[in-house]
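Throughout this review, each integer encodes one residue's backbone shape. One record appears below.

===
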Amino acid sequence: TVTHDFAAAYSQRGFGYIKNHGIDPALIEAVFTQSRAFHALAESEKQAILLDRNHRGYIPINTSTDVNSKLADVKKPNQSSSFMMMGESIETPQQFLSGPNQWPSLPEFRAVLLQYTQHMTRLGNRLMQIAARACGADPATLAPAFQDPTIWLRLLHYPPSPAQSPDDLYGSAPHTDFGALTLLAQDDVGGLQVQTPAGNWVDAPKIDGTFVVNVGDMLHRLSNGFLKSTPHRVINRSGHERYSIPFFYDPHVNTTIAPLPGTGTPAFAPLHFGDFLRSELLAGYDQHKQDPTP
């Protein structure tokens, strides 16, 4: 069954490919088209929607650093630029990370991204139900955390790394994702690498018709450690521009994360997701250091 396969893959590796996911390939390609159009804009146009205190907008190259990485002593910023959008949650502006998105002046950009996130949110919900069953929990116990999930869509652009670049210069430094599930669409260029349980780094290339899906730190905690949050990194030595589109499906920011009933004696203390996010974003992004989130 799918639940058995999910449990087998994500209790051992924490990374896998999913197919038959129901997302139209034409829609995925449309998002890549919009990403390339955004990254081709003049820098001044992108700077006009610079990352704001609600973590939405343009993230220039050399402005994010994985200083909290448990996997490497990261001193150099990530060699990528990106556009970040989140849910259009503007009803409660006082809530952490709640607010409108910032949009570039590209005619189809907003409509395409909103359509994609709508479909991906439904897919994320289906996968979380499978994840709950895989770790022995009742999917209904997830309802309070994911009734109004925190979603993020990031349009990443990695320039090619110089041939003689230092070993500690990464497109994305070694890290684990801090949320629940990541669903990644990537191009043919390659560069994503995943750490095996033995500590080796292996390539995770594009496979047509699939998403790369991995477990993040919060789902690791919800599953009481059963589902693995696996280290990964990006090194783009292809000589070509690399584009990737991760979609992050996470609990509501006000969720207290604790091992789900049915997963055994709790191995983790409860953790407030919003407080955790605040510390991660403040540490990792230059813009938040200049304009701390509330």
